[in-house]
Design brief:
This protein has a domain of 69 residues: Arc Repressor Mutant, subunit A (Orthogonal Bundle), CATH 1.10.10. 66% of the residues lie in helices and 12% in strands. The chain contains 5 helices and 2 strands, in the order H-H-H-H-E-E-H. The radius of gyration is 18 Å and the shape is elongated. 16% of the residues are buried.
Length: 100
């Protein structure tokens, strides 16, 4: 899952889609596609990659799809990296704090 999140976040259009969906919860595919000059098919492919990485949650409401941002995959990546590497910094920072 972590690889899919990094792959999804690697493209600037996908990051822009995430930002837009975060700011506009429940937006439609058409609203997202209007952000770009590229075709709706190209935007749909970006949305599919974001959905596969679980960064977007999509709910069908009649004939439209509503898009919502899911923070959990990013939180998982953050937790993994900060937990793993924070041990290298915590001891020296505590020593420095005690010294000061």
């Amino acid at each position: 899952m972590i690889d899919e999140v990094f792959q999804a976040l690697a493209h600037p259009h996908r990051r822009q889609i995430i930002d837009f969906v975060h700011q506009t919860p429940g937006c439609s595919s058409g609203e997202i596609a209007a952000l770009f000059e590229s075709s709706r098919i190209a935007v749909a492919k970006h949305i599919k990659i974001l959905e596969k990485a679980q960064l977007l949650l999509i709910e069908k409401s009649g004939r439209t799809k509503q898009h919502y941002f899911n923070i959990m995959p990013i939180q998982t990546v953050y937790d993994r990296w900060t937990d793993q590497y924070s041990q290298f910094f915590s001891a020296p920072l505590n020593s420095f704090k005690n010294y000061v």
